[in-house]
Structure formats: structure tokens, C-alpha cells
Amino acid sequence: MLILFNKPYGVLSQFTDTGGRLTLADYVAVENVYPAGRLDRDSEGLLLLTDDGRLQQRLSDPRFKQPKTYWVQVEREPDDEALERLRRGVVLDGKRTAPAKVRIIAEPELWPRDPPIRVRKAIPTCWLELTLTEGRNRQVRRMTAAVGNPALRLVRYSIGPYTIEGLEPGQWREAEADRAIR
Prior knowledge:
Radius of gyration: 16 Å
Distance between the termini: 12 Å
Number of helices: 3
Strand content: 25-35%
Helix content: 10-25%
CATH class of the largest domain: Alpha Beta
Shape: globular
Number of strands: 11
């Protein structure tokens, strides 16, 4: 079984929490499925859940280089040098990240975020589409900050062939596992 879930802002990528925070259990009432990878509490978008350990590994293990595409709202518009640094990879914790695909995009049609992002009238924002094949801790946020464009909002749009198209925050649907991933 494979579930595509549009994780809302503020929800943990796990089924239990002793602190009373929202978890996957508040949205997905399916037994014996587990997240294939993680998405930070303050990030939104596609999270894949499965009951198939092999599929979970192929989706989340960096050795299989599944592309993950994010829509990132950042402070200021990155200049060509900042974009090129992201494309080459930036150094985080003493180790260079794998190169990213990145481009400036028009503001995507998304649901309102609750709570809204902080808006500073003197600092414009810009949207990027960033695709990675690795998944370090808070990598997208750390990469954009490293080039001088801190992330304000982060939405994972896709993992491999799967997207959040047609899913509102908190909604999920079953999908067929792509043959190329199995």
C-alpha cells in the first residue's frame, strides 16, 4: 500500500507524540503504514506512507536518489551567484551538498498557511523550485539560508513521480507504486 498525504503545517511526520501536538494519526486512520522519509513540522506538502519496507527504503534512502521537489518562498530574490551556489551544492556541517536543480518560479497557487508567514514590508519575497536527491536534516532551509535567502515557507511538491496535485492539506489518497521505483 502507498499513501500520498498532503501534510499540513504544524503536523509531525509520525503517528504518536507525548506532547499533544498534531500527528499523522490525526489525519490518516490506516494501520501499519509508516512514513517513507520525513517532513519537518514547519514544512508542508507531500509525505508518502507505506506498509512495504522495501518500497519505504527505495523512496527514502539517498542511495536511490529519488528526486524531491520543493516550492520555497524565500526572503529577497536570489541573484545569479546564489542560484549557481545552490546548483553546485553548498557546504553544510563541513560537507558539500549534492548539486540541486533550482529556478525562480511564479508564486504557486497554494492554500493559505495557518499561521501565515511573517511579512516584512521592506523585504520582498521570491519563490524557488528546488529539486534535491539527498535529504539531510532541514537541508532546503539550511541551503537557502547559506546563500543569503532564508526560507519563509516550504512546500514539498513531489517525490519521484508522486505529487500533491489534487490534495488539499490534511487529505490523502492511495496510489499505485511506480514500477520504476520497486
